[in-house]
Write a structure and sequence with these properties.
With about 450 residues, this protein is α+β, with helices and mostly antiparallel strands. The protein has one domain: Orthogonal Bundle (Cytochrome p450). The chain contains 18 helices and 12 strands.
Length: about 450
């Protein structure tokens, strides 16, 4: 057995690099150590894995005796999500919660949200004026926030809707910059140290949000409508095999989990889509041609089935995956990975970013080229923007619906121009990978024709 590569940089320097320069940190260690390496951050020690075979071993065994997908290793997310979040559950409890929450996000139920997503996109765009400067990230954040409020929370109008839209946006923005992200990694910084401390502001915002969410949960529970299609109503009605439903506290924490996992990540991915399709106009033209040929510009379901649009969305999620890592796994029995023996008690984490930039899988990986997903079929251990195994994102199908429908609708119904030729730069946003400055654009107005715009 060969010795396991161990990063040699001082631990807290590594942690600082991970917080402020995550892509440089991962790229540098991949160049030095290859397929896996042991990272020491002072507050955490774990093995980064980017080889498909090793990832398959890790993720296909995470419900067995050798590897466990423990929820308590995700403790740093508790202040954001709440202690009842599915992300913090383990074993049987996690499996039961996952089974309870899955139905609203799959099958025929998912189709109910397609036209709603398209309509929300059009409504948000109605507020813009031709010639208006904007950041694509702010625009897509507004759209995906309304999707969450309407499709997930079941709110469509009124004071509570408006207050939650405003407060939730504020709360998410408080960890939007790399420096602010240190609050996530050092929870002590989020404590209330007085009126002007970040912790005090977070506590005040969280209390307001909690009051509004609990009021909505109580009212909805008191008059639940069996015909409702929003996720909150479906979760209120859901029962496990012994007839047990979710408590108000559990519903609250799952709503916050769906918000954090579904709104932030999708908004960023769509903004990247606007960036790439305007820096490489031929891609935009191909998407518009495909949508026009399929007569799908006003058919949300049809739009989700188009191969080139899907390939473009996959490439968006490949090149700068919003989730850079999988959830960690704990080794519970001696394990062999790529010729290395891993001792029990070791934490493993899949490195999605490095996997998506392996040259043996994605030649010229720094190039944005959707065609690669039409030329080759990638396995679940070669392309995993939503993680994998027992902890794969529950809402991945809804996220793909949003990405395809919102991007397709924006490109076919409206004209935009880049405000500058500067490329967007990836930057940490909380625990995810976002972008710096959000893609500055000019809204030029509705498209005059809905036919192909080939050059």
């Amino acid at each position: 057995m060969t010795p396991l590569p161990v990063t040699q940089t001082y631990p807290y320097v590594q942690l600082a690099n991970w917080i402020f320069r995550p892509l440089d940190y991962m790229d540098a260690n991949y160049r030095r150590y290859g397929d896996l390496f042991f990272a020491r951050w002072g507050v955490l020690e774990w093995i980064f894995i980017n080889h498909p075979q090793a990832l398959k071993t890790m993720l296909s065994q995470d419900l067995g005796p050798a590897i466990s997908a423990l929820g308590d290793v995700n403790e740093i997310l508790k202040p954001l999500l709440g202690e009842n979040s599915i992300i913090l559950q383990t074993g049987k409890q996690h499996r039961q919660r996952r089974k309870l929450m899955m139905p609203p996000f799959h099958g025929e139920r998912l189709k109910v949200y397609a036209e709603l997503i398209r309509q929300i996109t059009l409504e948000v765009m109605d507020d813009l004026q031709p010639g208006q400067a904007l950041q694509a990230r702010q625009l897509t954040q507004k759209i995906t926030m309304r999707v969450i409020l309407q499709a997930v929370f079941g709110l469509h109008e009124g004071d509570r809707y408006q207050r939650l839209e405003h407060l939730l946006t504020q709360r998410l923005d408080m960890v939007s910059k790399p420096l602010a992200s240190t609050i996530v990694f050092f929870p002590i910084l989020s404590k209330d140290y007085g009126k002007w401390s970040p912790g005090a502001k977070i506590a005040h915002l969280s209390a307001e949000i909690d009051d509004l969410l609990y009021a909505e949960i109580r009212e909805r529970r008191a008059s639940v409508d069996a015909t409702s299609s929003d996720v909150l109503s479906l979760l209120i009605m859901a029962r496990d095999e012994v007839g047990q439903g979710l408590s108000d506290e559990e519903l609250h924490d799952e709503l916050m989990t769906l918000l954090m996992a579904g709104h932030e990540t999708t908004a960023t991915a769509i903004a990247w889509g606007m960036h790439w399709t305007h820096h490489q106009p031929d891609i935009r033209h191909k998407i518009c041609d495909e949508i026009a040929t399929a007569h799908a510009s006003d058919d949300a379901i049809a739009m989700t089935k188009l191969p080139y649009l899907e390939a473009t969305c996959h490439e968006i999620l490949r090149i700068y995956p919003v989730a850079m890592l999988t959830f960690p796994r704990l080794v519970q029995q001696p394990l062999e990975l790529l010729g290395h023996t891993i001792a029990p008690g070791t934490l493993l984490v899949g490195c999605i970013y490095l996997l998506h930039h392996r040259e043996d899988l994605y030649p010229q990986s720094s190039e944005f080229r959707p065609e690669r997903f039409l030329e080759r079929q990638y396995s679940a251990f070669e392309f995993m923007p939503f993680g994998g195994g027992a902890r794969r994102c529950i809402g991945y199908a809804l996220a793909m619906y949003e990405l395809k429908i919102i991007l397709g609708t924006l490109l076919t119904h409206y004209d935009f121009a880049l405000a500058s030729d500067r490329p967007a730069i990836p930057e940490r946003r909380g625990v995810t990978l976002g972008m710096k400055n959000g893609v500055e654009m000019i809204f030029q107005g509705p498209r005059q024709v809905a036919t192909p715009a080939r050059v």
